[in-house]
Design brief:
The structure is a single chain. By secondary structure, this protein is mostly beta strands. Helices cover 13% and strands 46% of the residues. Helix 1 runs antiparallel to helix 2 and helix 2 (40-54) packs parallel to helix 3. The radius of gyration is 35 Å and the shape is elongated. The chain starts with 15 loop residues before the first helix and ends with a strand.
């Protein structure tokens, strides 16, 4: 290794010690220029000032008052340089260990310096107004309500583990919406354990903050909602194919699972979804389609085993007799898809559910089905998507020409109950044989966090009233104020 010259200071470039060393060398080696250069006494005073600021050996005068010892100045300079190096190393170490804090329109996050550990805090608040103009049953009232109040904590614990926890504070009591942990082997293979949405229905898997209409359509009444279990999921082919397959406790159509397995039986659910032109610049880049389904046995009576179907107005229009029991295989299958192109959006799905039932000594396998299509158009030109309008091009700003993003929505759907359900398994004077519902609405995205929604919805029924008559049409106006971050 080549030895460094005695006058060169290691790592001193750009530091106070560097120019001080040069000044000392010039003043000692070139006496003829001393009158235009600092004197040793002046350099002594500057060195003392630097030592007071950055730390170093305290200045000391010679005992006999003779000229200052240049060798002593040099030694003190070396000490000061080393002290500066240590301070720089400590600063770099602190920066490496410091957490990265970010607060923006998507919430707040705290991330370790190496990115392995992260905590994200997000939230969703939805306040609704429901106003019925006809067809509502007794006990249904116009009302304001807090529909959703959900804080979410999610993040990572190292490179392999992710988590999410979402409680729900709307309603009369608190509950847990999502709580799960992910073991992330790779983007193509992640194991999820906990409570989360079953991988069957397309609209069920869509976040409630991104829905085109205020409430979900009729097919979601047949799809399971959140269930408790374990699932293998992932994306392959650069995200063009996603899948999920899992084992769950099992839950009735359209509802969340209860806290434990009610019948000692399990349900197997899965989904394949293709986006063949994802990330391409082609016309079909927003096309996605797939199929979901579930199968399992269930045995028991009551609401934990048999479904009740509701309209998009959240009014029940079908239920089984209290004496009816689930007694055997329950299967579901659901072809589904969407297409988004610039401001245009189309989402459609079909679902069919089959359940073995028993009442007394009579058994039957009944088949119910539903379908829906939703069309949307963003009037202000932003891109439509499965996740809604992510961010208006011109956020609402009174007096400055910003009016946010505006979206028109239209939806139609039907739900048909198996004709063999009547009258033995369901009361035709109370439960309707089918429902046909349409909804029109407008969404106003003031910015990426605030959304106002207004829907007019109407549902027509076949049956569901005394003497074989049809239940009155249900008509309602729903409004929503949503804050999401």
């Amino acid at each position: 290794m080549q030895q460094r010259p005695a006058g060169e200071r290691r790592g001193a470039g750009g530091r106070p010690g560097f120019w001080l060393t040069g000044a000392l060398a010039c003043s000692l080696a070139t006496p003829a220029l001393a009158q235009s250069k600092p004197t040793v006494e002046e350099l002594q005073r500057r060195l003392e000032a630097l030592e007071q600021r950055y730390g170093g050996t305290a200045a000391q005068a010679t005992a006999d008052g003779q000229a200052l010892d240049v060798a002593a100045l040099d030694q003190r300079l070396r000490v000061l340089e080393r002290n500066l190096e240590l301070q720089e190393e400590a600063r770099v170490a602190r920066e490496k260990e410091a957490a990265v804090v970010a607060v923006n329109d998507r919430g707040a996050s705290f991330k370790s310096a190496n990115g392995d550990y992260e905590v994200k805090i997000r939230g969703l608040i939805q306040g609704d107004g429901r106003f019925f103009t006809g067809g509502e049953p007794a006990g249904t009232y116009d009302t304001f309500l807090l529909r959703t109040a959900r804080p979410t904590i999610e993040g990572t614990l190292g490179k392999w583990i992710g988590y999410r926890f979402t409680p729900e504070f709307a309603g009369d009591s608190a509950s847990i919406v999502d709580v799960y942990a992910d073991l992330k082997f790779s983007p193509a293979a992640t194991v999820r354990v906990g409570k989360f949405t079953s991988p069957v229905g397309l609209e069920r898997l869509e976040s409630s903050s991104a829905l085109s209409a205020i409430e979900r359509a009729l097919p979601s009444e047949l799809a399971p909602n959140r269930d408790i279990g374990v699932q293998l999921q992932g994306e392959v082919a650069k995200g063009k194919l996603s899948y999920g397959i899992g084992v769950f406790n099992g839950t009735v159509d359209g509802r969340d699972a209860i806290t434990s397995n009610p019948d000692n039986e399990f349900e197997y659910a899965g989904r394949l979804f293709f986006e063949p032109f994802k990330n391409d610049a082609s016309f079909w880049s927003g096309l996605g389609f797939g199929i979901g389904g579930s199968v399992g046995d269930t045995e028991g009576t009551g609401n934990n085993f048999l479904p009740r179907y509701r309209t998009p107005g959240q009014v029940q229009f079908f239920n089984y007799h209290a004496a009816v029991a689930a007694d055997g295989r329950r299967t579901r299958w659901s072809p589904q898809g969407y297409f988004y192109r610039n401001a245009f959006g189309l989402l459609a799905e079909y679902i069919e559910t089959t359940q073995e039932l028993r009442v007394g000594a009579t058994r039957a396998e009944l088949e119910n089905n539903a379908w829906q299509a939703t069309v949307s158009w963003v009037l202000t030109g932003e891109d439509a998507s499965y996740r809604g309008v992510a961010k208006p091009s011109s956020p609402f700003s009174p007096g400055k020409g910003g009016w946010g993003a505006w979206e028109l929505v239209g939806r139609y759907g039907e739900l048909d109950v198996d004709e063999r359900a009547f009258p033995l398994f369901a009361d035709p004077a109370v439960a309707a044989r089918s429902a046909q519902s349409w909804t029109v609405g407008v969404n106003w995205y003031l910015n990426s966090n605030l959304k106002l929604v207004a829907n007019y919805l109407q549902t027509r029924f076949d049956g569901g009233a005394a003497a074989g008559a049809d239940r009155d049409d249900e008509r309602a106006v729903f409004t929503r104020l949503q804050v999401a971050f």
